[in-house]
Design goal:
This is WYL domain-containing protein. By secondary structure, the chain is an alpha+beta fold. It has 11 helices and 14 strands. The strands form 4 sheets. A 5-stranded antiparallel beta sheet has the order 9-8-7-6-10. A 4-stranded antiparallel beta sheet has the order 12-13-11-14. It has a 3-stranded antiparallel beta sheet with strand order 1-3-2.
């Protein structure tokens, strides 16, 4: 039989592994009587672990939430996952670097040598690419997350990309972190439409608004909706390309931000955009299909410039030689 200390650690590990346990199942796993189990449960409670009783015919136990966070028992893979997460957890959250670093130091000090070596190998073999980011106070993120959980509307001041400030009320659905920024996917109450809001541009008002009934995800695809909204937000030029190719073929060639509508089995319409007409003209050529386009007047001359450049390069090309545009 395990010693009392070892048995308590094993009991704690079992309670952390699933939500509810019957008393008989716990006693069987520990190879003790139900009386000894009750004694061990009392010991855990005296140490500050909030072990709750589960009502029912058989009775049972669960590890509840407490006023203080008790020590957690992690297996090797769980400990490694937490360490990796802490090393990458600071992106886009203001003031989180010190907190994450402090937690990481505490964890790494307790890692056995075999895990420290695995973590060091992983860190040495990986590189994090730098991305433009806008930091958000952790308090703002947690307040929004709480509103999502409670299904409470949020009221906030919002500054658009052009600097226009407005007061908004929205039903928060999900927080999304992408491209170094935090976004809130929410139902805009005034506009009666789904919107994405940059969290760094939000100034929350208190208290929250009324509760709401959860809606179906926008377009049935939350991730796709956010990708399209974020991807098109910076477009300075927009156009509709009528493409002589099946929609499935074009969808495979374009980023998620581009909406492709099927016309028939051999043609489709792609809603495209870019920072300038010249960039859009170059990008349209990557569709690798014939097309016509509805767009700003400047797009036609941009297409001609691209066509002329490639025509000159083609005319100057010779077998085995070089071509210059």
């Amino acid at each position: 039989m395990l010693s009392t200390s070892a048995r308590l650690l094993h009991l704690l590990s079992l309670l952390q592994s699933q939500r509810d346990w019957t008393g008989s199942a716990l006693a069987a796993r520990l190879e003790v009587s139900t009386r000894t189990l009750r004694t061990d449960i009392g010991r855990l409670r005296s140490l500050g672990y909030p072990v709750e009783g589960v009502p029912g015919v058989a009775g049972g136990y669960r590890l509840g939430g407490g006023a203080a966070l008790p020590p957690l028992l992690l297996d090797d893979d769980e400990a490694l996952a937490v360490a990796i997460g802490l090393r990458t957890a600071t992106g886009g959250v203001a003031g989180f670097e010190g907190t994450a670093l402090s937690a990481l130091v505490k964890l790494e000090q307790t890692l056995p040598a075999r895990l420290r070596h695995r973590l060091e190998d992983l860190v040495a073999a990986t590189v994090a690419l730098r991305t433009e980011s806008s930091d958000v106070p952790v308090e703002r993120l947690t307040a929004i997350a709480d509103a999502v959980r409670c299904r409470e509307s949020v009221r906030f001041g919002y500054e658009d990309s052009d600097g226009t400030a407005t007061l908004r009320t929205a039903e928060p659905h999900r927080l999304v972190h992408t491209r170094g920024r935090w976004y809130l996917a929410a139902w805009d109450v005034a506009h009666r439409a789904w919107r994405t809001f940059r969290v760094d541009r939000m100034q929350l008002r208190t208290p929250n608004g009324p509760r709401f009934v959860a809606r179906d995800e926008p377009e049935g695809d939350l991730i796709g909706f956010v990708e399209r909204a974020v991807g098109t937000a910076t477009w300075q030029v927009r156009a509709r390309a009528h493409v002589q190719a099946p929609a499935a073929r074009i969808i495979a060639r374009v980023p998620p931000a581009v909406v492709v509508e099927e016309v028939d089995a051999t043609t489709c319409i792609a809603h495209v955009g870019s920072d300038s007409c010249d960039q859009l003209a170059l990008w349209l050529g990557l569709l690798d299909a014939d097309f016509t386009v509805d767009g700003p007047a400047e797009l036609g001359p941009a297409l001609r410039r691209v066509a002329s450049r490639y025509t000159r390069a083609a005319d100057a090309a010779s077998p085995g030689g070089s071509a210059s545009a």
